[in-house]
Automatic annotation (TrEMBL):
Record InterPro entries: ACP-like_sf, PP-bd_ACP
Protein name: Carrier domain-containing protein
Organism: Desulfofustis limnaeus
Pfam family, one: PP-binding
Domain of life: Bacteria
Residue intervals of the Carrier domain: 1-82
Amino acid sequence: MSNQQTIKRITEIIINELKLEDVTPETFDVDLDLVDEIGIDSMDLATIALVLRDEYGIRIDEDDYPKLTTVRIIAAYIDDKRSQGE
């Protein structure tokens, strides 16, 4: 799966989990800060991390949550974990 595919899938997951009904993956800015600009809270982030864990078969440490600020950064994190075989 390419980085662009990972970004698109993460965007779909976030839109679905946050129930952003007026937003599509094509209109979602993947560089928006999820906390400061989208307004997700720690519970939303924990839920999204669980969905990503199930989707990609990787473990996302709670200590890493504050680093996962944008879709693009999350995609790079997932790609890095997958390349390490985690």
